[in-house]
């Protein structure tokens, strides 16, 4: 039967990771996959994570299964971190998932179970795996305008006009903060306008929040999510701990389904557990336990927050350095948007040909749509990148 299989399209981000590995050049620069690297190029285990793992190792006397929705302490801690009491806890159904990707996937499946003909509105562009999973599940995709290639900011009028065509039973997928792949984000007034559209159309918001703490701060990055969740009757939220706890390979995420009443909450909770059982039974526990250990220990939490803040500020510094260097080399302000963008990524806004030229001629690896992982830079690679951008004529 295997001969009937068809080759599937390679994931662009993962294919790039492999090409980078295979490149023998010592000067190569990896701005592909969204992983934070420190000034020495290492993706370190965060201090609080190490300490929590130590604590767990000493105290844990069993590896028996958790519940289908994972350890309730993890759900409680994450609901607190993301929502901070924006809605009553009793309205939030939640299940641990293998990473933020797992949460997104389970959310799509829940949408399909609830409403097989639901359309999902996605920003143009969005994280490629959103599209890939939606296609895989045969869910109709409706792109909405998002990135303005001229200003490298958000085409907000276009976005709003497109979102207004949604109706009850549709889902609008939003990036809670640090938009991936563009780095261009909405301001508070624009979020309010999106909430108005959610209310007038009756469409259900689904928020993918994978970078809380990487943009303007832990609280600031969750502000839009909290406001949305408290303004609409129902909402799905997929949260990831991969980046802000640096536990990428532990696969730690949480899917939240917020309902307006207790009956809907119970049904949501039961459905989330059912979906986990169908797809993988019990979710991974180690990363989740690390996260709840940190969030429930005042000292560990303070240290985690301090280190996350160091990471966030380092990324902001790199953004500024790159924008300054490009201003110096180009004699123009046209790269100023790099300092305005937030999160791990910025879309440079150039052609796939120029991206290819950066890779072949300069050993600089970024995704074909010109998404750069700012957290992959360091003070040594910033001038190399800036010079290469100018050399290829961007
Ligand atoms: C990314 O966008 O680079 C990350 O979210 C990693 C991934 O799984 O694609």
Description:
The chain has 394 residues and is an alpha/beta fold. 46% of the residues lie in helices and 13% in strands. The chain is built from 14 helices and 11 strands. It has helices at residues 12-22, 47-59, 72-83, 99-114, 128-136, 156-163, 188-201, 218-229, 262-279, 286-295, 298-330, 337-340, 352-362, 381-391, and strands at 29-30, 92-97, 119-124, 140-145, 171-175, 204-209, 235-240, 253-258, 345-347, 364-365, 371-373. The strands form 3 sheets. Strands 2-8-7-6-5-3-4 form a 7-stranded mixed β-sheet, with helices on both faces. Strands 1-10 form a two-stranded parallel ribbon. The N and C termini lie far apart (49 Å). The structure holds (2S)-2-hydroxybutanedioic acid. (2S)-2-hydroxybutanedioic acid (LMR) binds at residues 13, 33-34, 127, 129, 180. One of its GO terms (biological process) is L-phenylalanine biosynthetic process from chorismate via phenylpyruvate. Its cofactor is pyridoxal 5'-phosphate. InterPro entries: Aminotransferase_I/II_large, Asp_trans, PyrdxlP-dep_Trfase, PyrdxlP-dep_Trfase_major, PyrdxlP-dep_Trfase_small.
């Amino acid at each position: 039967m295997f001969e009937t299989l068809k080759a599937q399209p390679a994931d662009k981000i993962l294919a790039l990771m492999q090409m980078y590995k295979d490149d023998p050049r010592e000067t190569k620069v990896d701005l592909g996959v969204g992983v934070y690297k420190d000034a020495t190029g290492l993706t370190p285990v965060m201090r609080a994570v190490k300490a929590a793992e130590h604590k767990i190792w000493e105290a844990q006397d069993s590896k028996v299964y958790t519940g289908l929705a994972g350890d309730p302490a993890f759900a409680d801690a994450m609901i607190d971190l993301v929502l901070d009491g924006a809605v009553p806890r009793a309205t939030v159904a939640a299940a641990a998932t293998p990473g933020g990707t797992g949460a997104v996937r389970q959310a799509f499946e829940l949408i399909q179970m609830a409403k097989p003909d639901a359309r999902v509105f996605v920003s143009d562009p969005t994280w490629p795996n959103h599209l890939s999973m939606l296609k895989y599940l045969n869910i109709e995709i409706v792109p909405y305008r998002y990135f303005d290639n001229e200003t490298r900011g958000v085409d907000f009028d276009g976005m709003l006009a497109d979102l207004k065509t949604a109706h009850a039973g549709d889902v609008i997928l939003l990036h809670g903060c640090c938009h991936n792949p563009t780095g261009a984000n909405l301001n508070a007034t624009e979020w309010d306008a999106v909430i108005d559209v959610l209310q007038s159309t009756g469409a259900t918001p689904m928020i993918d929040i994978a970078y809380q703490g990487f943009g303007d701060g832990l609280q600031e990055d969750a502000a839009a999510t909290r406001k949305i969740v408290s303004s609409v009757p129902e909402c799905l939220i997929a949260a990831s701990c991969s980046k802000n706890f640096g536990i990428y390979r532990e696969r730690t995420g949480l899917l939240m389904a917020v309902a307006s009443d207790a009956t809907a909450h119970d049904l949501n909770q039961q459905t989330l557990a059912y979906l986990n059982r169908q797809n993988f039974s019990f979710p991974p526990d180690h990363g989740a336990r690390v996260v709840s250990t940190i969030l429930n220990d005042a000292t560990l939490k303070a240290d985690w927050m301090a280190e996350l803040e160091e990471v966030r500020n380092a990324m902001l510094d790199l953004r500024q350095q790159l924008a300054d260097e490009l201003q110096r080399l180009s004699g123009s302000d046209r790269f100023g948007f790099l300092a305005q963008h937030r999160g791990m990524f910025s879309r440079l806004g150039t052609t796939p040909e120029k991206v290819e030229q950066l890779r072949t001629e300069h050993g600089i690896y970024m995704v074909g749509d010109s998404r750069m992982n700012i957290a992959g830079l360091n003070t040594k690679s910033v001038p190399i990148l800036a010079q290469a951008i100018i050399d290829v004529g961007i």
